[in-house]
């Protein structure tokens, strides 16, 4: 049994190295997430931020280094302990990952029914409360196929927080949303975090939304944390690849052109 | 999306007709009912040659199935085949009944035919049928036919 | 030249090991995981019942109709051959033995593989592709216990029932054609059948076969779904693989079982 070391950081990632099928995705990651804060992990596609999220959630094991959640080393937990830890975590997947064969209500009720032995009447109240918090109490009987993208995302969010987790992980929550839904989801992330007294980690490359929302930012590039700071520090940073990312410049440290032979020669070659 | 009750109903119907099909196959198509595990007693019989008799072959008397062959062994001392039969307890046979190995139809399966004797005492479990007649083996039949033919030919000369 | 050949052999060996041997090992471990996670399936049997509906009940139409047609064809073809030897009354024997021993379990198994097996693979594969399985895992619910095992047991339970229904419908079809249509004597049809078909030898062996096929088909179906690459293409490939592999497995197992059971007793 791991001894939980008292700390004000809920999540600590130390010297983590991870490779996926011979490609080294994470080279030496170090980051901390203080309790009660909303932290963004940003970077270009393929920089390893989703992988990092999975490592924190215990779905993947690092090759080297440690991932600690609430003082426990996640990659060394036994299956019962991991099980117990996951009950206190929630993860929102990229497009919601609702169970398509049951209604929205049953989706939100799922973790309650699986992990508690509460009577149906209480479960009903809890589900309706969670759906109300995301503004979709009226959509409880709709099937996931009948929901729009934004609505599905919100129902999935209600499901994620059904057991009042202490750590909420968001995998690209803003992808593919219209401006109104974007604003709603962003607001919900902050509200839920504060009202639950939880800690949130948001993996995204939606710069504008993230900078308005979070307390702290980690910017990843090529398997390492290249920069971290508050949103204001990020906006003012002189770091070239960060600037390119934040201001969406087409060309910079990440080149516009994919490596190719010289243009004239390529055209003239038969 | 079906309610739980509708699901249960359909699955129940499915299970019922599936089991019904199995019962149909067992009783109407196969012969389960005609010789179910009623009470039976065991009787032995020794034969010089059992021919093609197999375990679970029928034991018939007057053409009606009265039992089944349970076991076929070889007695190394008397060099005979020992056939053990389960006879339905409903039927009793006199102690001097005879057992023959017969063929159903011309080239069909072989079975044991029990012909009742005249004794007042009946066979009981563990007894042995004393009078037996072995199976007719085709080769012996042909060779005896040829032998008879040859003997006839000689006699005429 | 020699190097080309050895290169090809090496590549072939690598293909065989990577695709077949490794996958077979993984599939076996997966079966073990499924069996170990089956406690939930029995404690919450309504999960299994739900899956029996989708694998068994939904396959009823194709099984019953196919069984009827196969039986009817057996009646026609069987009569045509038997009447040449003056043995038309043995039609019942021919139809029933063909169905109960072989056609029932095998054809029902093949139909089951293509209808229910492919559906199971597609469902599980799609759940994997849309991250529903990962979501379940993150919610500390074992997807193998909740999604895979109930479908496995549903297939194993449904298959023998479907094979029996197929055989029963086939016998009925043979009866319709032989007795009603052609005019074979009804009494001989049934009585010779009852004399020839043995419960232990034929019916029970047929049930054992269908049970073995059920395990094989459902195992392949759930494994291919769980192992499918999480893309549209991956799921569709996995679905076809299920049908092909299950069909081959049924035919191969049928040979092995027939050789063991009907060794010319």
Overview of this protein structure:
The complex is a heterotrimer of chains A (270), B (157) and C (265). Helix content of chain A is 37%, strand content 24%. Chain A has helices at residues 49-57, 79-86, 104-115, 120-133, 149-160, 179-196, 207-213, 231-236, 240-247, 263-268, and strands spanning 9-20, 23-34, 38-43, 64-69, 72-73, 89-92, 167-171, 199-204, 216-221, 224-229. A six-stranded mixed β-sheet of chain A has the order 6-7-8-3-9-10, with helices on both faces. Chain A has a four-stranded antiparallel β-sheet with strand order 2-1-4-5, with helices on one face. In chain A, helix 4 (120-133) crosses helix 5 (149-160). Chain A starts with 8 loop residues before the first strand and ends with a helix. With 157 residues, chain B is of the alpha/beta class. Chain B has two domains: 1-33; 40-142, no CATH class. Chain B has helices at 4-29, 138-156, and strands at 40-47, 58-61, 64-75, 80-88, 98-103, 110-115, 128-129, 131-133. An eight-stranded mixed β-sheet of chain B has the order 7-1-4-3-2-6-5-8, with no helix packed on it. The longest helix of chain B is centred in the N-terminal third of the chain and has 26 residues, at 4-29. Chain C is mostly helical. In chain C, helix 5 (91-129) packs antiparallel against helix 7, helix 5 (91-129) runs parallel beside helix 9 and helix 5 (91-129) runs antiparallel to helix 10. The longest helix of chain C is centred in the middle third of the chain and has 40 residues, at 143-182. Chain C is globular. Chain B binds chain C through residues 2, 4, 7-8, 10-11, 13-15, 17-19, 21-22, 24-26, 28-32, 34, 54, 56, and chain C through 46, 49-50, 52-53, 56-57, 60, 96, 100, 158, 160-162, 164-165, 167-169, 171, 190, 193-195, 197-203, 207, 265.
């Amino acid at each position: 049994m791991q001894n939980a070391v008292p700390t004000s950081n809920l999540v600590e990632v130390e010297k983590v190295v991870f490779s996926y099928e011979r490609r080294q995705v994470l080279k030496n990651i170090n980051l901390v997430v203080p309790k009660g804060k909303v932290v963004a992990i940003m970077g270009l596609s393929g920089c390893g931020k989703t992988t990092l999220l999975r490592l924190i959630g215990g779905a993947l094991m690092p090759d080297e280094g440690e991932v600690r959640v609430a003082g426990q080393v996640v990659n060394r937990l036994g299956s019962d302990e991991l099980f117990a830890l996951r009950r206190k975590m929630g993860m929102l997947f990229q497009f919601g990952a609702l169970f398509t064969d049951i209604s929205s209500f049953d989706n939100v009720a799922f973790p309650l029914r699986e992990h508690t032995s509460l009577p149906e009447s209480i479960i009903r109240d809890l589900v309706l409360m969670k759906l109300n918090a995301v503004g979709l109490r009226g959509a409880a009987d709709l099937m996931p196929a009948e929901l729009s993208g934004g609505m599905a995302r919100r129902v999935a969010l209600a499901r994620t927080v059904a057991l009042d987790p202490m750590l909420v992980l968001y995998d690209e929550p803003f992808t593919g949303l219209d401006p109104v839904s974007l604003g709603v989801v962003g607001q919900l992330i902050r509200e839920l975090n504060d009202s639950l007294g939880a800690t949130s980690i948001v993996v995204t490359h939606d710069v504008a939304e993230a900078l308005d929302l979070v307390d702290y930012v980690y910017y990843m590039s090529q398997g390492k944390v290249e920069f971290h700071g508050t949103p204001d520090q990020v906006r003012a940073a002189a770091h070239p690849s960060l600037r390119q990312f934040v201001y969406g410049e087409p060309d910079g440290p990440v080149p516009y052109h994919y490596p190719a032979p010289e243009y004239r020669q390529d055209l003239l070659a038969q | 999306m079906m309610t739980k009750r509708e699901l249960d109903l359909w699955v129940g119907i499915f299970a019922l007709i599936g089991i019904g099909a199995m019962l149909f196959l067992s009783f109407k198509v196969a012969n389960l009912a005609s010789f179910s595990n009623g009470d039976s007693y065991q009787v032995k019989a020794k034969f010089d040659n059992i021919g093609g008799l197999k375990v679970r072959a029928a034991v018939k008397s007057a053409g009606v199935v009265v039992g089944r062959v349970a076991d076929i062994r070889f007695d190394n001392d008397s060099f005979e085949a020992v056939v053990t039969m389960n006879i339905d307890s409903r039927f009793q046979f006199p102690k001097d009944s005879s057992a023959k190995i017969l063929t159903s139809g011309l080239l069909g399966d072989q079975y044991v035919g029990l012909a009742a004797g005249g004794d007042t005492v009946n066979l009981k479990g563990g007894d042995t049928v004393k009078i037996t007649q072995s199976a007719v083996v085709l080769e012996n039949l042909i060779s005896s036919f040829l032998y008879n033919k040859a003997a006839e030919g000689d006699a005429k000369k | 030249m020699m190097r080309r050949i050895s290169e090809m052999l090496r590549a072939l060996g690598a293909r065989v090991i990577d695709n077949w041997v490794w996958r077979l090992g993984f599939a076996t471990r997966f079966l073990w995981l499924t069996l170990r996670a089956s406690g939930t399936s029995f404690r919450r049997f309504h999960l299994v019942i739900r899956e029996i509906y989708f694998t068994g009940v939904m396959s009823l139409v194709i099984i019953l109709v196919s069984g009827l047609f196969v039986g009817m064809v057996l009646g026609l073809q069987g009569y045509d051959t038997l009447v040449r030897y003056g043995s038309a009354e043995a039609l019942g024997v021919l139809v029933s033995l063909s169905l109960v021993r072989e056609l029932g379990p095998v054809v029902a198994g093949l139909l089951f593989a293509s209808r229910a097996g492919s559906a199971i693979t597609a469902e599980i594969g799609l759940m994997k592709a849309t991250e529903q399985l990962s979501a379940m895992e993150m919610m500390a619910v074992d997807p193998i216990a909740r999604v895979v095992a109930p479908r496995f047991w549903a297939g194993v339970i449904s298959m023998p029932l479907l094979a029996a229904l197929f055989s029963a419908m086939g016998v009925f079809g043979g009866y319709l054609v032989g007795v009603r249509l052609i005019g074979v004597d009804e009494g001989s049809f049934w009585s010779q059948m009852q004399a020839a078909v043995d419960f232990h030898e034929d019916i029970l062996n047929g049930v054992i076969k269908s049970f073995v096929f059920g395990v094989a088909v459902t195992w392949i179906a759930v494994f291919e779904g769980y192992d499918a690459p999480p893309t549209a293409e991956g799921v569709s490939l996995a679905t076809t693989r299920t049908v092909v592999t299950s069909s081959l497995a049924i035919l191969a197992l049928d040979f092995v079982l027939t050789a063991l059971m009907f060794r010319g007793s």
